[in-house]
Amino acid sequence: MTTRTAPSATALYDIPGPATRKRHLLYGIVSTALILALLGWVVYLLFDTEQFTSAKWTPFEYKGIQELLLRGLGNTLKAFAYAAVLSLLLGAVLAVGRLSDHRAVRWIATLLVEFFRAMPVLVMIFFIFVALKVQPLPALVTGLTLYNGSVLAEVFRTGILSVERGQSEAAYALGLRKTQVTRFVLAPQAVRAMLPTIISQLVVALKDTSLGYLITYEEFLHAGKLIASNLDYDLPFIPVVMVISPIYIGMCMLLSWFATWVAKRERRNPKMKAVEIAPAEPGTLLPGVQ
User: Fold this and answer.
1) Each residue of 169-193: pLDDT tens digit?
2) What's CA 264's distance to the chain center, in Å?
3) Dist CA 183 CA 241 (whole Å)
4) DSSP code per residue over 181-207
5) Are 206 and 197 in contact (CB under 8 A)?
6) How far apart are CA 154 and CA 170, in angstroms?
């Protein structure tokens, strides 16, 4: 006959007793009921305002509407791809500038980072589009690159500085130059630690591509706006939101999944595994040592 030992308290919290567990169960049931009631109320409002009528959903069956959405989705992905690559490159350059041994380079890089981080993305996009008379796609990509690149520069710089100092000291002791130490020792370790933050910022860039509709760039949200404001389809605003939102959420989740996959692949990389060290054995004594 086996006996059950009562769970003991930990350093972080006390194990709840029977009364506390019942109270937590009651809280969970009440919270679930409230959430279900809220969802039911939202669904009721959607039906009450006739958001599920065939007139509002029929447009999505037309080939022209489907092509419009696909073209907008393709333009969104194109703008994101350009902005993501350029933001990573700009962030790396500005991070190197902020870590430079030359004071002038450090000051210039710091000024650029702080300026573009403080400037609203929409203001930069409008300035480039209106004042500099740049086409919608380059204006959108440039605005996203300047903002996200400056944020990523701080992420890269913080990640490199977070690597243990002994790593760089050991590399310098082997005769490596600063660029080699950063490239081969510090950066690989920092990237693995910074990967979640980098992906989070790229998700921000992906969502900010929707600002392109304000400068007439025909991206995904712009296509949805054209459909939602169509009187012939009884202004299907809510159906358009219900179609576009899951796609945006799916793209962000796919990006996060890709980051997780890359992280797992790095951990399985044989080059990243620890090397087994043989146990110490008696060796030849130094001359003069008994």
Assistant:
1) 777 777 777 777 777 777 777 777 7
2) 17
3) 45
4) HIIIIIHHHHHHHHHHHHHHHHHHHHH
5) no
6) 25
Planar angle of CA 194, 273, 261, nearest 5 degrees: 45
211 and 140 in contact (C-beta within 8 Å)? Answer: yes
Instruction: Give the pLDDT band (50/70/90) at residue 100.
Output: confident
What would the two tokens of residue 58 be? 């029929």
Using alpha carbons, list the distances in angstroms from residue 86 to 89, 145, 188, 238.
5, 6, 20, 35
Q: Which two tokens stand for residue 67?
A: 């092509």
Give residue 61's identity as a one-letter amino acid code.
E
In one-letter notation, the amino acid at residue 165 is R
Q: How confident is the model at residue 81 (pLDDT cuts 50, 70, 90)?
A: very high
At 245, the amino acid letter reads S
CA distances from 253 to 55, 82, 199, 248, 250 (A): 31, 20, 11, 9, 5
What would the DSSP string read from start to end of 242-286? HHHHHHHHHHHHHHHHHHHHHHHHHHH-GGGSPPP-PPP---PPP
DSSP-derived 3-state class of residue 88 = helix
Cα torsion through 152, 154, 155, 159, rounded to 10: 140
Residue entry with tokens 């080699």? 180
Give the rounded percent of residues in the chain with a pLDDT score beyond 90: 40
Total length of the chain: 290
